Amino acid sequence: QLQASGGGVQQAGGSLRLSCAVSGFTFDDYAYGWFRQAPGKERDFVSAIRWPGGDTYYADSVKGRFTMSRDNAKNTVYLQMNSLKPEDTAVYYCAASTGLRIRESPNYAYWGQGTQVTVSS
Q1: What is the mean pLDDT of the chain?
Q2: Which of 18, 63, 75, 119 suits 48 as a labelling partner, its CA being 20 to 30 A distant?
Q3: Where does residue 63 fall: left (phi above 0), alpha (psi -120 to 50 degrees), or beta otherwise?
Q4: What are phi and psi of 48, to 5 degrees?
Q5: Rounded to whole angstroms, how far apart are CA atoms 100 and 108?
Q6: What's the pLDDT score for residue 98?
Q7: φ and ψ at 13, to 5 degrees?
Q8: In this structure, what is the dihedral angle of CA atoms 12, 111, 28, 107, given to the nearest 10 degrees?
């Protein structure tokens, strides 16, 4: 089970931190990703983090503004979102993968319920 939280309404230029608490399977065995889906659009890759190593990957649209991290002691992954833009408005989903192609949503076995992020201009 993945439980995402931390969404809300923020003005452009502001920050939010999303959290995703993981339970029900071995946290260390998975890579984790964040995806987002805006109304009327497809679900897009945002960020991912591997383990071991902690290598991170970002979509070009968020690179330099968003930072993904994981706390293996707390079984939680985070997405720190800075310099938010109105185009970041979407439902954000966390997901767990054992696959190699972690930029691709079909490679994720488990998904959280999503948390709404709204950025006003």
Answers
A1: 96
A2: 119
A3: beta
A4: -150, 160
A5: 10
A6: 86
A7: 90, -15
A8: -100
Query: How much of the chain is in helix, strand and coil states, percent to nearest 5?
Result: 5, 50, 40
Q: pLDDT digits over 21-73, tens only?
A: 999 999 999 999 999 999 999 999 999 999 888 899 999 999 999 999 999 99
Structure tokens at 121: 């201009």
Residue 50 in contact with residue 70, Cβ under 8 Å?
no
Q: What is the pLDDT of residue 100?
A: 83
What is the rounded distance in angstroms from the CA atom of residue 92 to the CA atom of residue 115? 5
Cβ-proximal residues to 118 (8 Å cutoff; 6+ apart), any chain = 7, 8, 9, 10, 89
Nearby residues of 62 by Cβ (< 8 Å), 6 or more positions away: 46, 47, 81, 88
